[in-house]
Amino acid sequence: MEKEICKISIASNWLGDEYTFYENRTIKRVYDNHSLNSNKTEWLEPQQISNQSKDKIIKNCPEEFKERIMQILDYP
């Protein structure tokens, strides 16, 4: 598996929503649909992530990874 850059949570309530970014530019999302359907995993391309979610990801991103994550997300 590729080396992990960082994990960023954008959960706004009790449902989890976490993105993991890897050196090979892959993105893994682990999220909860509801309390009985949790820890769903999907692999995403940057264009599959909404602009609203990208805003939250960058806002919650640790400063030392922000530039790299913005490049991966093709964030303006």
Task: Describe the secondary structure blueprint for this structure.
Elements: E1 4-9, E2 17-22, E3 27-31, E4 40-44, H1 51-60, H2 66-73
Antiparallel strand pairs: 1-2, 2-3, 3-4
- Number of helical runs? 2
Share of helix, binned: 10-25%
Order of helices and strands: EEEEHH
Segments where pLDDT lies below 50 for 5+ residues? none
Strand content: 25-35%
Average pLDDT, all residues:
94
Terminal-residue CA separation: 29 Å
Largest sheet: 4 strands, antiparallel
- The domain count comes to 1
Which strands sit side by side, in order, in the main sheet? 1-2-3-4
Radius of gyration: 12 Å
Q: What is the molecular shape?
A: globular
What is the total tally of β strands? 4
Structural class: alpha+beta
